[in-house]
Design brief:
single chain; alpha+beta; eight-stranded mixed sheet
């Protein structure tokens, strides 16, 4: 077989393989569409466990008069869905990136937010054939912090409280919170002095169920212009 003919055959096989792979993924998405994405994937006797972590990208705005603080963060959610599949039935496709609207996702909101959380990234998640889901949207969050008695030029501390808007701890538990600074913007106007993350459980007079929230604490200060430029005088 000549080299030219061999290359032609290889190209055809690669094209067919790609087409087959796309067909397998389309079949899997069609199969997923029959799954009810409105039902929370909890067990009868235990809640769905959702691991939530916050990766801070930047502090965009701090208004001492109004108490408004704006940040950009990756809000990582991982949990186990009821939807699973046998990769052998779908061309050995073991994981799939899909729009989040096709699957149940945790209703995580900022309790002290002052506007709707603004998504900045494509609204996609990745689900494995085992049902394990990873959803990491990049979000701009505006929330309230009492700054009137704090000096943002030296040290200010704010708390962001995240939790489910409708589910009690009997249906959805938030576990293993982390506050990560590994991707923080080095040229930010604000220097981060410290962070922490803590799980809290609350009870209310109206209801016997526990309600779970996560408190992310952020300490920061406003950098001088020379600090932002990386100049040491």
């Amino acid at each position: 077989m000549g080299k030219g003919l061999l290359l032609c055959v290889i190209c055809i096989l690669v094209t067919q393989s790609k087409a087959s792979g796309m067909a397998d993924q389309r079949s899997l998405v069609s199969y997923l569409s029959d799954h009810d994405n409105t039902i929370i994937p909890k067990k009868e006797s235990s809640p769905v466990n959702v691991t939530v972590s916050l990766t801070l990208i930047d502090i965009l705005k701090v208004d001492k008069e109004t108490g408004q603080v704006d940040i950009v963060a990756w809000v990582s959610n991982t949990w186990k869905s009821n939807f699973q599949w046998d990769p052998a039935r779908f061309g050995n496709v073991s994981n799939l990136a899909i729009p989040s609207k096709l699957l149940w996702v945790p209703d995580i909101y900022a309790y002290n937010g002052i506007s709707k959380m603004e998504p900045l990234s494509p609204d996609l998640l990745v689900i494995a054939h085992t049902g394990d889901v990873v959803y990491v949207p990049s979000i701009r969050i505006s929330f309230l912090c009492d700054l009137k008695r704090q000096d943002i030029s030296t040290n200010a501390t704010c708390e962001l409280k995240l939790g489910s808007w409708v589910y009690s701890g009997y249906k959805m538990d938030l576990i293993n919170p982390r506050f990560d600074l590994s991707s923080y913007f080095s040229g930010s106007k604000y220097e981060v002095l410290g962070v922490s993350a803590k799980k809290e459980t609350s009870y209310y007079q109206c209801c016997p169920e526990p309600y779970i929230s996560l408190k992310f604490v952020l300490s920061f200060k406003e950098q001088s212009s020379r600090g932002i430029l990386g100049i040491n005088w």
